[in-house]
Amino acid sequence: MSSTKYILGHFEDPDDMMHGIDKLQENNIGIYDVFTPMPIHGIEAKLGVKRSRLPIAAFCFGITGTFTAFSMIYYMLVYDWPMNIGGKPSFAFPDFIPIMFEMTVLFCAFGMVGTFFFANHLFPGRAPRVMDLQATSDRFVIAIDAKANPFPDKIDGLLKEAGAVEIKHNDRKYVSYE
Amino acid sequence: MGTHDNHTHNFTQEFEFTGKAKTWSLIAIVVGVLAIAFGLYTNAERTFANLLLMSYYFTCVCAAGLFFICLQYVAQAGWSAGLLRIPEAFAKVLPIASVILIIVAASGLLTHNLYHHWHQEGITEVGNPNYDPIIAGKASYLNMPFFLTRMVLLLGIYSIFARVITKFSNNEDLEGGLSSYKKNFKFAIIFLIIFGFTTPLWAFDTIMSLEAHWFSTMFGWYNFAAMWVSGLCTITLTVILLKKSGYMTWINENHLHDLGKFIFAFSIFWTYVWFSQFLLIYYANIPEETVYFYKRWEPAYKPWFWVNIVINFLAPILILMTRDSKRQMNTLMFVCIMLLCGHWLDYYMMIMPGTVAEHRGFGIIEIGTALGFAGLFTFLMLTQLSKKSLVSSNHPFLQESLHHHI
Q1: Is A94 on the interface with B (CB under 8 A)?
Q2: A6-51+127-176 belongs to CATH 1.10.390
Q3: Could you count the other beta carbons within 10 Å of the beta carbon of residue B21?
Q4: Among A64, A81, B44, B295, whose Cα sits 20 to 30 Å from the Cα of B380?
């Protein structure tokens, strides 16, 4: 049993890489992930990547902000310390709306940034984890889980055939920026 | 998958304006003419208010079509290249719509059915029983010759731009190359600047001066938002109906998604300006400003005041929020029709309290006039649309539009 954990196929051309994905899929080899230095249209559909649930999180954060603002203003201006402002009733709802709107936006924006960082393991002091450093500059990389897919030679052959310029057998999942 | 398919599209396809669409639009025009004739005979003032409403709505939708084209040129947008012929057909109808609006406004003004709040015998003469000091103070702007000059000038300029920009788009079909596109880019910039500064004046004159004592600087943008949303809805509805009849195979759910996003965003923008106007007036609570909402808070209008917000804000924001609803043709079509009715109500709430006030109605005159103008718009627009192929096949961004994928 080899100690290879992941097989990484490097491509210099995105079309070759797309071709490589087709080849692997035809041979029922599961692809762990694909890393590209630029967005490629249609790749999510090809790999069967599920749609992000970030919009749902955004909605939840937003609505939390709306209710936080409403409760806060209601407590301050209606319940705790009612004041006469321009002779209006304390519960002057139109005046609440701008603040409710702003708090919705604030909660939504911060919440989304936080969720994104959390989901991607990005926070201050954390060295970013990448499977291959060149995938962030000029290489298109297909990663295959070697433990789940037997016959590494066959995988190498398929990647080569599709036009891979380099094939790496990594014992560790991540390399980190040092 | 929208990106890598290799459909063959028939770009020389032309819309054939026959059959049901033609019959029903002509029937609607006849119904409209009959209703207007009946209305003029029974209740001229209410009919004129309705004529103003619908001719303004009609002109606004056509102007929004021209605005849409110019926006796409200035942004150098690629996604919309495949559907630009539809707003172009709107823009080609703009000169006719402008003439109708000018005739309605001028005849309403001269017969004292509209704008009598500032246009009366002796209203600016000190000592006259009709004397109104506020109107007298505004008379240097609000007087008949200047009012009509402004109206003709503004709508004339818009119409000229509509002619020029659609002409260059036609030239593009005949000659190819980039020169037409570059010229239209330049004209689009000039038009957007002129349009941006003058639409508030157009709205102030046509609608706000019905209640000439009151004024709001937000009113122009509020009207612009209503115009833009209703224009986008009409464009989307036309695209969907054409697709349903088997035309425009190159338009897919990605283009509809973008149009849906536009409708969603600008429905919120409409609410934003509506509320900005409302909140300032509510907060300051100055009698000469609150009179506008006081009138719309009378029992005759109060329920519709709320319906207006629900239909133009709450409904689109909740229905169009998810991605799927924007990509489903039927949902989007429902929202478009709803918003078109909603903005009719919006204009109704702008116009009626200042003209017929508590004698407002909803009956043969309202429905008939609305149907008549809808039919007239459909007839004229589809006639223009059927004259050219449904896509400008030499448009430099056409390929980008075909491969649009979001």
Answers
A1: yes
A2: no
A3: 17
A4: B44
